[in-house]
Amino acid sequence: MARSLLRQLEQIRWSYDYDDNVAGANTSSVAEPTTSGSLEEDANVLRTMLRQVKGDTDWFTAPRTYFDPTSTTSGSTENKTLNLVNIQNHTLDAKTIIVAVSNDNSGNGWSVSANDAGELLGSITTRYATNNNRMGLPIYAPGSYTGSDASGIYDENGADNVCRVDIVNMDTDAEIVDSNGYTIYGKLYNGADYAGTGNGTDVYVKYWANDAVATMASGVSSVVFIYPQRKRLTDMAEYEWLRTDFISSWEGDVELIEDIYNLWSYTGASNDVTDPTWDNTAASYILQSDPDDLTTAINLLNTEIGDRVYTGTYITSGDTITDSLEDLDVALAAMNAASVNKYAEEVSTLISKNVVHGLPGSLTYTPDDTSGEEGSNMDVYVDGQLLSADTGTNGVNADRDYSESTASGIAFRFDIQVGRNITYMIRQ
Fold first, then answer.
1. Which pLDDT score, from 0 to 100, does residue 148 have?
2. Three-state DSSP class for 334?
3. Looking at residue 424, what is its pLDDT?
4. Per the domain annotation, does 71 fall within a domain?
5. Least enclosed by CB within 10 Å: which of 136, 157, 228, 398?
6. What is the separation of C-alpha 209 from the centre of its chain, rounded to a whole number of angstroms?
7. Are residues 101 and 237 in the same domain?
8. CA–CA distance, 261 with 357 (Å, rounded to integer)
């Protein structure tokens, strides 16, 4: 009996084999055997399940940690033990939300003047974010900051972009811009450094623009500040879980809706009609296909109007349509204004061929030897028959009826007898 008791005590005291990877540990036949098994096997099944619950490589290492924003270091260390006690009622601890707080001074707005450097907001009981508790107001504190509580304020050495404060002009419901067109915004500073009390009492908003300290623009008298506040999801009421961006989102939703209505009005659309209605869709109109979107319509216009590459004389490629029409109008006006002078000559002396014959009355014209346009500045008729000017410079090719030899004379390619009539129509 003594020997049997000793073996039973040894079996209860310890397991000979340690195993936290028991096959089939999650089945009833292994986890709860009814016909065989031992305490050692049961312990190994428990070890296996514990390893699975931990999600680790073994069953005996210390529990892991997680990030709790209310208990941190400047290095963002995950230092809260991940156990059931810590997790209970805190399943959302590790997630922080930036809530946008709109402060209009109880509906009165905050009074500002041109060239103000900032505004001290009183009655702000929300705590400041610090290195060991990041909930609350993110105060701007760059590395060179030497004000009160400089070592405790959490701002990642001035790189914490959530310190930005949006400023809205109460008269226009719009953001404010300076004389250079830059948006004026703010950053949260410790109120104690600006004639205030500080953490839990007030906060100072300093004006910035274009990533530099600035002053308030002229013409603004009352503003609303929309500033950020860090909260944990655990601490948030249901109604707080709304849009959390600033002017560009929830604060600007009303403005966005108004802008959409303006676009509908401007484009002729509406909230229940997506297909535009064109005035002219009959045959031969560019939009005769009745396109149902602006992109297609503009592409049709672009194609039908064509490019702006011209090969003519008066219009320059690449010019706007307005400039091109203006050039064409000027050219047409010049053509209409140009006078055509007609001169008649009765031949009294034989005009020999290939000999330059001076125009009567010391007339002059502009010879034109451009290929295909020879003689374009003067027409010459003999007894009513229109002649053709030779090709080549000064009609050197002698291949037609006469050459435009000089600005004051021409050379006929045949003799012209006495008594014949020559008519000159000079345009230029």
1. 60
2. helix
3. 94
4. no
5. 157
6. 20
7. yes
8. 79
